[in-house]
Amino acid sequence: MILPMTQEADLDSVIRARVRGLRLALGWSLDALSRRCGLSASTLSRIETGHRRIAIDQLRPIARALGTSIDQLVELAGDDDVVIHPRRDTAHGRTTWLLTREDEPHGLVVAKMRITARRHSGPLGVHPGHEWFTVLSGTARLHLGDRVVLVEEGQSAQFSTMVPHAIPTADDPVEIIVVLDRDGRRAHLDPAPE
Q: Which residue, 30, 57, 80, sits at the end of a domain?
């Protein structure tokens, strides 16, 4: 595939910025990256500053040294992938807004929940993994097996989801931000099988 000239220049600029950004985030000098990827420090400097075009055969050792992939170095992302438009889903005494993309590659999901249910009906949930949430407003009544823990505004909770659990509100509605792994998403956000 041949890219139009402006896209090609944009791609070069993106790669240069990513290589430099990753190198600096690792706290490496050009010499340190040079030792790890087998390219000279002067070549790396010219690549980062745009005085030299990066060759495809240089991408693999640079990506490997920086702990990333060629795909991640060359991915062109538009502005449309920055803003997420959460959709509202209401069920079982709670309203949920998914704050991450449906196709999140790392499996973690962040959601905002507004819980109005004061009691949990049915058995407490159990699934592999861990969950974390922080209370934005109100007080959550975290059921963990036989324990009930009140988690107030500004506080957070983290727990193994192998312990039977549920999060109703203590009194008034509670709003939380919750981080779920794949198993947590299936248990709490995906529609129940019919």
A: 80
| Rounded Cα–Cα distance for residues 167 and 176 (Å) | 10
Domain C-terminal end among 35, 60, 80: 80
* Calpha distance 93→118 (Å, rounded): 8
Residue 71's SS3 state is: helix
**Domain co-membership, 117 together with 177:** yes
Q: What is the pTM of this model?
A: 0.56
| Residue 183: pLDDT over 70 | yes
Give the pLDDT confidence of 13-44 residue by residue, as tens digits: 888 889 999 999 999 999 999 999 999 999 99
Q: Which of the four pLDDT bands, split at 50, 70 and 90, describes residue 79?
A: low
Q: 141 lies in a domain? A: yes
140: which residues sit within 8 A by CB, 6+ positions away?
115, 133, 150, 151, 157, 167, 168, 169, 170, 174, 176
Nearest Cα to Cα of residue 110 among 187, 185, 20: 185
